[in-house]
Amino acid sequence: MFAMSYKVQRYVILFSFLTLPLLLLAVFSFYPAVYLAWLSFTSWDGYSPDKAWVGFSNYKEIFTNADIFKVLSHNFVYFIGGIVQNILALIFAVLLNSRLRGRNTFRALLFLPYIMNSVAIAYMFTYVYDAQNGSLNALLTSVGLESWIKSWLGDAGIVNYSLAFISMWKFMGFNMVIYLGALQSIPGDLYEAAKIDGAGPFQSFFYITWPSIIKIVELSMLLTVSGALEVFDLPFVMTKGGPAGASQTFVTQTVETAFNFSNYGLASAMGMVLLLIVVLVIFIQRKLILRGEE
Known about the structure:
This protein is mainly α and 294 residues long. It is built from 13 helices and 2 strands; from the N terminus they run αββαααααααααααα.
């Protein structure tokens, strides 16, 4: 029997363990991405075997139709909500990293919304925001704030803020857990030394905590940006893009273009444009705002 050297055995084992993951990655990620890019240069209705080549016509339609990019202003509301969400998550992480009585219970309660199904959350808040019998308007009435009562999902001016609040509520616990893990990795000796030197809580945060978790903040912001650009489930389930397209996002518009108007070529081009936007925004964020590896 052929005896393999240690080096050969190591390469065989590495190759064996990598084969299946790389195969799955190629089948379910790389191939769909390449196929999507090819479809973006065609005109296809989704069921016909003929896929007519139209070149850059779909991309020309995207960049000359102002209505397509107008919905990105709706995505911007989710981005603002994501920033607020990260700030609150960091505050709760700092508080729950201290010796607070019942902190494990509070951690579980704050993380609970993240493990809930997004569709279930959407249906739950549909009843909360209901203009006639919703619990939110009932609460405002019971505390004497009738002037604050709104049609939370029917008012074009506030519908995106209502939906962004749900997203903020769902994902804040996830970011809190990430920040909490980063805080617990900071050696306690640093805080003790800073306290001996006369540093207060704010000085310890800005000179010890913040520099130690800046990379985690960068990761969370990358997820926030990509998540804000790819919002789909909440507006799709709760408002169907209404009222009058006020809560339409780029992804819901892409899905509508494909399945409602049977224009899969244009929808594929919109998907590629969204991918390029996400990559561009993340690149700018890293190099200009967060200054990459500095």
